[in-house]
Design a protein that fits this description.
heterodimer; A: about 500 residues; eleven-stranded mixed β-sheet; about 40% helix; B: about 475 residues; alpha+beta; DNA polymerase, domain 1; elongated
Amino acid sequence: MLSRELSANKIKEKIIKREITAQEVVEELFEWIDIKEPLIKAYLCLDKDGAVLKAKEIDKKLSNGDKVGLLAGVPVALKDNICTAGMKTTCASKILENFIPPYDAFVVKRIKEEDAIIIGKTNLDEFAMGSSNENSAFHITRNPWDTDCIPGGSGGGSAAAVTADMTFMALGSDTGGSVRQPSAFCGNVGCKPTYGRVSRYGLVAFASSLDQIGTVTKDVSDAALLLQVVSGHDGFDSTSAAIDVPNYISDIDSVDDNLRIGVPREFFGEGLNPEVGSAVMDALEIYKRNGAELVDLSLPHCGYAVATYYIIATAEASSNLARYDGVRYGHRSQLSEDNIIDMYSRVRAEGFGSEVKRRILFGNYVLSAGFYEAYYLKASKVRNLIRSDFEEAFKKVDCIICPTCPTQAFKIGEKITDPLQMYLSDIYTIPANLVGIPGISVPCGFTNAGLPIGLQILGKHFDEGKILKVAKLFENETDFHLKKPELN
Amino acid sequence: MKYEVVMGLETHAELDTESKLFCGCSTKFGSEPNTQTCPVCLGLPGVLPVMNKKAFEHSLKASLALNCEISNFTNFDRKSYYYPDLPKNYQVSQNYFNIGNNGYVDIVVKGKEKRIGIHNVHLEEEAGKLVHPEASGANYSLVDFNRAGVPLLEIVTQPDMRSVEEVESYMQTLRNILLYIGVSDCKMQEGSLRFEASVSLREQGANFFGKRVEIKNLNSMKAVLKAIAYEISRQSDLLDKGEDVLMETRLWDDIDSVSRRMRSKEEAHDYRYFPEPDLVPVWIDQEWIDETRTAIPELPVSKRQRFVNEYTISDYDAGILTEDRLLADYFEECVKMAQDSPKELSNWIINDVLRELNERKTSVQDFAIPPKMLVELIKIKPTIGNSIAKDVFIEMINTGKTATSIVIEKNLTQMDDVSELNDIVARVIEENPKAADDYSQGKKNALTFLIGQTMKITRGKANPKILTEIFEERLSAGSK
C-alpha cells in the first residue's frame, strides 16, 4: 500500500516509529496532489512550503526524542471557512477572496498543538450554502468516484480530498449536513459532533445555532482521533459545552451488549432511492446479526425539518453575513460610489453569489416586522417539537440508524437550477442540526453505477463515543471504507 | 390653545467596566483611534461574543435601583441595521427579554414628588465613532472602533413627563442613581450619558396621545432641555395653525439650536430583531437578585429625606449634600465625629468645602481636609472667631496642617479679655476722633470703621462681640 493510502492513525504510527519521515509523507502527498488536483479541484489554496517546514519541525522533535502530539506529522486539510492566521480564508466567496485572518480558529490552534500539518484549504459552496459544491465562486470540485458528479456540499472539497488520498484527514463544518452528505457521496467517514462539543470560534458563521465543526476521515478510528483533538470547552465560544471529553480513541473498540437501534419510518419513505434504501437495510441486518435489537420508530415532526431549517438557517445567515460590507475588509467595488448605501449595494451585489443572495433575501424576509411570528417564531416552535421527537426516541434506543442522503451523488448541473430539489438532498441530515445531536456517516455500499452510499448513525447529545463505537462495529464487519476510486 | 405635553426619555449610559461587553479590549476613553480593538469587536469573520459578567451585574443592579421587575430569564437579540460604525451591521441588544421591566423613579419638582415609570432597562453594545474629515468636499469618513463594544445600558421611561422641569429632574435623579450605585461614570463630555426624547402634545384633558416626535443626538442635559422646549413650541405652533404634527425622528443641532427631520415614520428601520444565537440565555435566580440588592447603597432620594429628618437641615441643603454620594458620606462622617452641630457642618460643607472643591477642581475624596480635621476646626472655632476660622480653613488646605497647630503657630486665639480690649478701644477712639464723634451722633456706619481699626491692631483676634459692646458703652455714654 502506498503511504498516501494509509489512514491517519497508520501514517502517524509509521512516522513515530520513524519508518518514514513526516517530510517524506508531505512531499509524496504533494506530488500526488500536483497530479490529481487539476482533475479533482478539491483545494482553494495549498501551502506546501508551510507544510514541509512543519514536517521538518516534527521530524526534528522525533529525532531529538521529544514528546509529540496526537496528530504528529499527519497532514490535515481545512475547509476554507475555518480561519487560519496568515493564510487566506475565502469561504469560496468573492467577497472574501483576499481575506487573511489575523487569528487561528480554536480547532486550528488545537490541531497545531497536536503537531498536525496543515496542507491547505478546501473548496466549499460559498459560505457553506449548498449541497453540491457548485456554489463555490471559484471552481467546482469533482467526485473522485465519477468526475462528472458533484462531491456533495457544502464540504465537497474536504470529502473529495480525503477520498482521493489528497490529505489524510480534514475538518469541515456541518450546518445541515455539510460534513455527512459529502462524506456519504464520496465514500468516507464524516462526523458531526453535538452542538457545543467543538468550539465554533474561528468558523465563519453561516447559521450560528446549527453550525458545528466536524471531521472528515478515511475510517472511524481516524474520526475518533481527530474528534479527540478538537473537542472540549473554549472560553471564546459561549455555546461551547463545559462537559468533559471522554476518551474516544480508547473507547472505540469496547463492545456494547444489548445495543438497541432505532429505525425511523420517516427516513425510509418517499424520495428514497431504492438502491440506497436496500444498502441501508443490509447494514441493519449486519447489526442484527451482531446482536443488536432493531426498534421501529416514528419521528413524526421530521417532515417539517427542511422547511424549519430553511427559515432558521436563512434568518441567522442574513444577519451573520451583514458584516460583509467592504468597510473594514473584503471586496470593495471598483466602481465609483455616491454614498454609503451605494457602496454597500455594490460590494454585496458583486461579492455574493446567487445562492447566498437568495438566502439573505429569504432570511431578511422571515425576520421582517409582521412576519417574525409567522416564520421564525413558528419555526423555533417546530424545532422544539422535532427535538422532543428525538428525546422520546432516545428513551427507547441507544442510537438511530438511517440513510445519510436519499440518493447517491448526482451529476454536475443536475439540480443547480432547482433549489428545492437541491435542498431535499439534506432531508436526512438536517434534523440532527436542528436538534443539536451528533451524527456520523460511514460508507455502507455502492450503487450499480459505482457511487458510494452513506449510512447515518445518530446519537444522544454528547454521546459521540457511542456512535463512534457503533460505526466501528460496522466497519469491522465490512470493507466499504477500504475501497478506493480508480484515479490512476 | 393650551396643550398638555407628554414626554418620555431614553437614556444610554456607558457602563463602567474595565473591558468591553464581549471581548477583553479596554474601554479607556481617549486613546489613539483603533488601538483598543480585536477581531471580536471589529466583527471579523468567525468571531463570537462572550458576555462580560461585570456588565451584566451592573445592569442587574441598575434595574433593581430603578425598581424594575427582574426577568428570571433574559436573552439577547440582534438588532439589524447598516451603518459603518457598527462592525457586524447588527447590534447585540435586548428586545424580547429585557433584564428589567416596569420600574419607576421618584422625582421631586417644586417640592412635589412624582413617579416616572420605567418601561424597561436593557443591556447592549456601543457602536464605534465616525470621524468626518474637516476639509470640505472630502469624499471619505474614518471610523474609530475603540468605543465599539463598550457596554451600554439603555433605560426607557414611560411617557410620564409633563414639563421641562420634570424632564430635568428625572435626568438629574437618574444620573445620581447611576453614580450612587457605581455602574457608570456618567461623564457627558465623554459621551458616557446620552439621551433621546419623545415629545407629543395633546389638548388639555384629552385621553389619547398626540403624534409623537423622537429627537436624537442629545448629548447633554442642557441639549435635552433646549431641544424639548424647541419641540414643544414647534408642535404647538403647528397645532395652533391647525396643521398636523408628523410622526418622525428629528436630529437636534446643538450649535444652531434647531432640530431637523431625520426620517419619517414610513422610513423607520425594520430592525429584524431575533434572538442572538451566539450567546446563551442568562437565568437570574432569587439569590442573585438578593445578593445584588444588598450591594445597592441608600439612594439619593431616601438619603435626602433621611438627612432632613435626622439632622434637621433644610431640604434644599440635604439636596445639595446628597447630590454626590461621596459628599454625603463626608458630611455624615463629620457629623458622627462631631456628635452634634449638623447644621453648622452642613453650612461649612456647602459654602466652603464645595467652593474650594470647585475652585481647585478636585473631588471630595481627594480633598486636603478629611472629616476629622474639619470637625476639629469647628470645635475650636469659638476660641478664634468665624473670620479667623475661615482663614485657618484655607491655611489647612494649603499646608495640610491641623487647625490647632495653625492657631498655636500663628497665635490666633481670640482676645476675650475685657480690660485688655478696653485699653485698645480707648486708643482707637483717641486716634480716630472724627469717627468716634460720628458714631456718637448716630452714624452707625462709623462703628464698622472703628472695629476695623481695632482688628488691625489685634490682627483680627479681638472678639467682635465684646468689642461692639465696649464701643457702644463708651461712645453712647458720651465720654469723649
